[in-house]
Write a structure and sequence with these properties.
disordered N terminus; 14 strands; alpha+beta; 3 helices; single chain; about 250 residues
Length: about 250
């Protein structure tokens, strides 16, 4: 940890980066499940036989077909981090506005913080402190897109759970289970809007006892977002303190 920033600040950098990478991996990978030769999701069951859930395949395929044509999207964003391993631990939650563009570009605006990435550099801006921490985007750190894509390539067991209502939306709930490779999670639950064919909610069950829940609303796709939207603009923050962690 660099000596010129506090432990709390450094911890928050790691928490938010980890949380968003999980979210981005789940969302982006959801439309890659059928990318290879339109093959259905298959996995090795405990009995050693290949099994598949046709209902789950159908849901994931509609997501892929919809999202394949999405260059970028924006949405209202909420996540809740819960530590089930710690008794009486209070959940951590945040709400904000999310912008995502292909090639690992993202921009999350919270009331007290901005998290921005152009695919190479991550800027974590703390508004109250007028302080920005700059680090390299590292796909090998923690939970990353390449890792989860390899998991899907190797096999992922998909299970259709049930039809639900999420507000006024009709929802298909699907659970995903990695069956090959090392992962930090053992299950991902996904709630897909039947009308829009986009994930509105995801819950990642981690092996360390924590869960991370993500919810999207007011989703708008193909907004022609500029690359400059994914770069921290120092001139917009006079007197900002820059901590370069690279």
């Amino acid at each position: 940890m660099p000596h010129y920033i506090s432990f709390v600040t450094y911890t928050m950098i790691l928490i938010y980066r980890f949380a968003f990478l999980v979210f981005a991996a789940c969302l982006i990978t959801s439309w890659q499940v059928y990318a290879q030769n339109q093959k259905p999701v298959k996995a090795t069951s405990q009995g050693g036989q290949q099994d598949t859930d046709p209902k789950a395949e159908k849901v994931l395929k509609t997501v892929k077909l919809k999202m394949n044509n999405v260059a970028d999207f924006r949405a209202k964003f909420k996540y809740v981090l819960e530590n089930r391993a710690t008794k009486n631990a209070q959940p951590m939650s945040k709400v904000g506005n999310l912008r995502v563009k292909k090639n690992n570009k993202f921009n999350i605006e919270f009331t007290d913080q901005s998290l921005i990435c152009d695919g190479k550099t991550v800027w974590n801006y703390l508004k109250k402190e007028n302080e920005v921490n700059v680090s390299e985007y590292d796909p090998t750190e923690g939970f990353n897109l390449d890792k989860i894509l390899r998991v899907y390539d190797d096999g992922m067991k998909a299970r259709f759970d049930e039809q639900q209502k999420l507000g006024t939306a009709s929802i298909s709930k699907v659970s995903l289970f990695p069956v090959k490779g090392k992962t930090d999670y053992f299950k991902i639950e996904m709630w897909v809007d039947d009308l829009q064919s986009v994930p509105l909610k995801m819950k990642v069950w981690n092996k360390n006892g924590s869960t991370v829940t993500y919810e999207l609303s007011e989703i708008k796709v193909n907004n022609n977002l500029k690359d400059s939207d994914f770069v921290f603009q120092k001139t917009d923050h006079p007197g900002v303190s820059v901590n370069d962690l690279r």
